[in-house]
């Protein structure tokens, strides 16, 4: 029988005795990352794995089953999802032998050294490769049969990711349903997922929903920012309140499945993210918005709150993606979904609390606090005055004739003072905001003979742990009045995966 969650281990064993086909789907949420390959200067597999380890990333999805990458991941402990590319789908879906050969070459040859925990068959097949739709379920079954033959079906799940566009009338979620033209595929697919204890894979992109809504969806609603109760979206049929687009889309998938009588197949989000750069037609593809979305997404997923329809049921999610992909075709935004550039330099430092945890982004431990581009000069001046006064920063290097006097402007001087305070406070949470006019960077702002505190060139003042950039919407009782502070006590103990997987899922 299909899987659903019974939290008590004793009850699980009893239920398995009564129903031998029962598979538990209890799971804590994890965050993983997608690793793409559209880089003109792709890091070597060894470099990729080194970055994953440095960031404590414990779940990764590959868009293929590259042998060198799988060998590099061996003995790393990282849980790996491999993919059958769309161009191989037709062959596998029409031949059990072809599927068995694929599994032998790309899975059996690498386990157990490489911890492969899932195989995704194709990507968004129904919407991008509809001619292959008739063989999609056959492909999944053939792959699964090969795993059964090798006694790997308990360890490795098989599924296929879908675009959220296959869900029609997604709001209110309770009225959502799948495009009925796909019923000949969707019904046997869900039967397969249910019978094998697998999960429904969904790509969720609130960025595109926001962009295509013509102003109907507020930016804050897409970015997980707090909304006043009167601004929350309410499903009039269920009276469930939705505070973000992500939850609404996931619940729409749950309702669409229940509409065709499948109520126990959990959702795993295989792609979600926000671009950090766009062209003139994409003004909201910015570093700040990308940082806000991914930071809030990580917190939301790892809180294990689930969704309004399925509270407490984890929605594990893979962030799209690890690297910016400069050779990807299309608009500027298509190239800029990554957390890192090809050299492993973070595009931004996530707004997460704690130190030394996953996706700190700063693998060099060099983070600096600088004046935010375009900040109000009057706000900068006020913050500079506070830092050099009540903040007790040594601002003597900014005096005329001293190394950091030039350039003599409020941006340069406030940058020095902000960073001096940030370093003095050991980069602790909430110490680089100054009412929104400061931001974290990994670029050393030192210049000429002006060496900034925290620079490798200044008396070895580099710290040994990574501090994560604070959220800008919280408070702290013992911090200076010019700062907006970090979110209280929430601390991520192990992000991007290592944490939290004590069950059969991934």
Task: Please outline the helices and strands.
Layout: E1 3-4, H1 9-18, E2 23-24, E3 31-35, H2 45-54, E4 59-62, H3 67-72, E5 79-84, H4 86-93, H5 96-108, E6 116-121, H6 125-128, H7 133-149, E7 157-159, E8 161-163, E9 167-168, E10 177-178, H8 183-196, E11 200-203, H9 206-211, H10 219-222, E12 233-234, E13 241-242, H11 245-259, E14 267-272, H12 287-302, E15 317-319, E16 368-371, H13 377-388, H14 410-424, E17 438-441
Parallel strand pairs: 1-2, 3-4, 3-15, 4-5, 5-6, 6-7, 8-11, 11-14, 14-15
Antiparallel strand pairs: 9-10, 12-13, 16-17
Helix pairs in contact: 4-7, 5-7, 7-8, 13-14
Number of strands: 17
Uncertain spans: 1-13, 20-25, 354-358, 458-506
For the terminal residues, how far apart are their CA atoms?
A: 20 Å
**Average pLDDT, all residues:** 81
Strand order across the largest sheet:
7-6-5-4-3-15-14-11-8
Structural class: alpha/beta
Query: How much of the sequence is in beta strands?
Result: 5-15%
Radius of gyration: 24 Å
Shape: globular
> Helix tally?
14
Largest sheet: 9 strands, parallel
Helix content: 25-40%
